[in-house]
Amino acid sequence: AERAGRRVSAARLVAPLAVGVMLVQGGLHVRGEITEHPYRIAPYAQQTEPATTPPLDGLLLEPEAAAWAGWLAESGETLDAEDVPTIAISSPAALLLFNASDYASPWVAVNWGVSFLSIERSCAEGAPERLLILEPEQLTADPERAAETRDRFVDAIAACGLDYPADFEVVDARESDDPRWAITVREYRSDR
């Protein structure tokens, strides 16, 4: 009976211990997210500018974020990008605002490693006649992860028979004092 009592006491400790471990892991993950994606933590009071482009129309953003969103939508229209295969490096929001292309994974980054395979599979029959790349100046807050993301992207696009950035021409760029909101649009054309 005494041995059974010890087992019950140990069993009662397992659940609180498991919950404690999950809370610690959750806290570390949130801290990691804030470090990796600092643009997601703007205080509500700083979100004063309504977005004017679908699908964010009316949503309050930081003024620079609203300007970035508007620029991406305008750039997509100016470049006649509606049905053009497009890949955004580590910026799914940019892709959604630019032309919502479904050519490859919307989030091509090391934190979603399989996303690089989506590029290789998308061009299994060869590179498209026209391909646009959206490359933010700051891929992530962590320089090592940014370099790894870019290197893995370069390798994935090479599987399509393309040399990035040599085979691409800069066709639009948004400059900003804050590297989170600076982005370059590059284009590959098979007829060049």
Report the end-to-end length measured between terminal Cα atoms. 84 Å
Give, in order, the helices and strands. HEEHEHHEHEE
Largest sheet: 4 strands, mixed
Helix content: 40-55%
> How would you write the strand order of the largest sheet?
3-4-6-5
Proportion in β-strands: 5-15%
Task: Give a brief description.
The chain has helices spanning 2-36, 63-78, 92-98, 115-122, 143-158; strands at residues 49-50, 60-61, 86-88, 130-136, 169-174, 183-189. It is of the alpha+beta class and 192 residues long. The model is unreliable at 28-39 (pLDDT under 50).
Explain the layout of strands and helices:
Elements: H1 2-36, E1 49-50, E2 60-61, H2 63-78, E3 86-88, H3 92-98, H4 115-122, E4 130-136, H5 143-158, E5 169-174, E6 183-189
Parallel strand pairs: 3-4
Antiparallel strand pairs: 1-2, 4-6, 5-6
